[in-house]
Design brief:
- The chain is α+β, with helices and mostly antiparallel strands.
- The protein has a domain of 135 residues: Roll (PH-domain like), CATH 2.30.29.30.
- The protein has a seven-stranded antiparallel sheet with strand order 4-3-2-1-7-6-5, sandwiched between helices.
- A hairpin with a 7-residue loop joins strand 1 and strand 2.
- The longest helix has 15 residues.
- The termini are far apart.
Length: 240
């Protein structure tokens, strides 16, 4: 409850007045999931309301404006709540909550309740929306022992997802016939054999190309280089 009150941003004065009355309606094994300040259908004139949602009960307390007394406004089991609707408004920000519940064993007709749960920011709005969805929309998960065998599917021919059929082993060959080709007629992969050649010590042949031709390779012939021109005697300079 203290963690939920800190998340809701309730003041210390509000906690001191509402929490003692709220604790009386919590069972020994019950856990508080939502605690929020709310406004009733009568507006702020009806007083300050605090809504508490647990795993088993929904409790609302009200503090009067005139005398400041805190009284119990609503205490109903979660299973008795019907026609519950809520609308998250991030622009408000807040969540509008409406539901119908039969008050007490002597009540003849159910009563419709309207509450507005204000929030400080949009993240708080989606937080309250998720808590309400987990409490009223999602079924409760029951934990079983670890060694308990899993229950069998109603139709054994369906997969766990119910999309793909599971074909039994005797009918597998009829549904999916094998290939008409024999195994000996298929292409086989043959590994190349590596021959052991006795090479003399110190003599290693040069590697040959895999695409070498059978004809011997002719040596390349270079074109003849022309001889230099003969040089005559150097010219003599005339004396000045």
């Amino acid at each position: 409850m203290l963690a939920c009150s800190a998340e809701a941003g309730l003041t210390t004065t509000a906690l001191a007045r509402h929490v003692p009355l709220l604790r009386r309606n919590i069972g020994a094994g019950d856990q508080v999931s939502l605690l929020s300040r709310c406004v009733g259908s009568d507006g702020l004139g009806s007083g300050d309301h605090v809504l508490m949602l647990t795993g088993q009960r929904l409790v609302v307390t009200r503090q009067s404006r005139l005398l400041g007394r805190v009284r119990l406004c609503l205490d109903a089991p979660v299973a008795a709540i019907e026609n519950l609707r809520w609308s998250a408004d991030p622009a408000g920000p807040g969540v509008e909550l409406n539901f119908t519940v039969l008050e007490g064993p002597h009540a003849t007709e159910p009563r419709r309740w309207h509450f507005w749960l204000p929030a400080t920011h949009a993240k708080r709005v989606w937080r309250v929306d998720a808590l309400l969805a987990r409490a009223f929309r999602r079924p409760k998960a029951t934990a079983g022992p670890a060694g308990k065998p899993r229950s069998q599917r109603v139709n054994p021919l369906l997969s766990p997802s119910g999309v793909f059929p599971v074909v039994p082993a005797p009918a597998f060959e009829e549904v999916f016939p094998s290939s008409p080709l024999r195994m000996d007629e298929t292409v086989r992969l043959v590994r190349p054999l590596v021959a052991a050649v006795d090479v003399p010590h110190g003599h290693v042949p040069a590697p040959r190309s895999a695409c070498a031709s059978s004809e011997p390779r002719r040596p390349a012939t270079l074109p003849p280089v022309p001889s230099p021109l003969p040089l005559g005697p150097a010219p003599k300079l005339a004396a000045a």
